[in-house]
Amino acid sequence: MFKVTEAAAEQIRLAATQGGTDGMALRLAATRKEDGSFDYLMGFDDSNDEDISFKCEGIDVVMAPEYVPMLDETTLDYVALEKDNMQFIFLNPKDPTYVPPAE
């Protein structure tokens, strides 16, 4: 199951409001690079009949069925990787470059 943290959900709602995309779902996708690592994509979009859709932390999330195997068990978070530099990160144990966060 894909998860969205509370911090990520808050930032997603803010981005939707600022971008005029309120009411649209968050679309997720992933591609595998030549080295085996994943490249993650996200944006606001309408869903279609073939999409897998669910709600997490109040966010409507959609993805095409072909991305489910890569994104299952992933957590989308919004964190400061450097001081004053917040960004979205995908924590995906299926990605060969994944390193679990330090406690």
UniProtKB/TrEMBL annotation:
<protein>
    <submittedName>
        <fullName>Adhesin</fullName>
    </submittedName>
</protein>
<dbReference type="InterPro" id="IPR035903">
    <property type="entry name" value="HesB-like_dom_sf"/>
</dbReference>
<dbReference type="InterPro" id="IPR000361">
    <property type="entry name" value="ATAP_core_dom"/>
</dbReference>
<dbReference type="Pfam" id="PF01521">
    <property type="entry name" value="Fe-S_biosyn"/>
</dbReference>
<feature type="domain" description="Core">
    <location>
        <begin position="2"/>
        <end position="80"/>
    </location>
</feature>
